[in-house]
Specification:
Elements (H helix, E strand, L loop, with lengths): L2 E2 L9 H11 L4 H8 L3 H8 L9 H15 L1 E2 L1 H6 L15 H35 L4 E5 L4 E3 L3 E8 L4 E4 L2 E2 L7 E7 L3 E10 L6 E9 L1
Parallel strand pairs: 1-2, 4-10
Antiparallel strand pairs: 3-5, 5-8, 6-7, 6-9, 9-10
Length: 213
Amino acid sequence: MNYSILRDGQVGNIGKQLKLAREERGWHLNEAAKRTGIKVVYLEALEEEKFQQIPSGLYAKKYLAKYTKVLNISLTEMVNELDPDNNNPFQKKIVSRKQLLSFPKIIRRFFLILIIVLCSLYLFFYFKKMFFPPKITIYYPEKNLITHEQTIIVSGKVAPETDLKINDESIPKDQENNFSQKVSLKKGINQIIIKAKKKYSQEKIIIRQILVE
């Protein structure tokens, strides 16, 4: 016998129609569960229209379709006539409380990973700045200079907080970390050794060879 969900052209109550059809067959919920392969708790949820207790809207629709098929009742017309925005419980996915709570966790984890990455980059550049040799730029003299002069002005710029030495003599810097130092030369090949070092960094050494003719 085919039972119809629609009564007098109106949409019937889903849960009551399911329960009525089951009771007319003389089935207890346990019997219906065996015939459908659906857990009793979900059949109860369907009959009491507590769709939020079913894992998701997709499962609810699947369970309802299977239950109505076993009960041999028509539910297609009723589902189609339901208001898709307000009344149809299967148009919107039913998100469990656990899923709602897990969604912010994903966001929190994303920002946590982002913070860790940013902190790691900051520490990398901080320690690079601290321990790597400081940057030094020599304006003059250029490499392998040949001159007739007996003196030369060594000039350039170093990174802030850098101790500078030319031929083991400490050299002062101005407020913009520029330096300029007069160095005496002798006939033949002269070697100028420029050393730059921060407190914890490695030492940067630049050597200029100058030939005095």
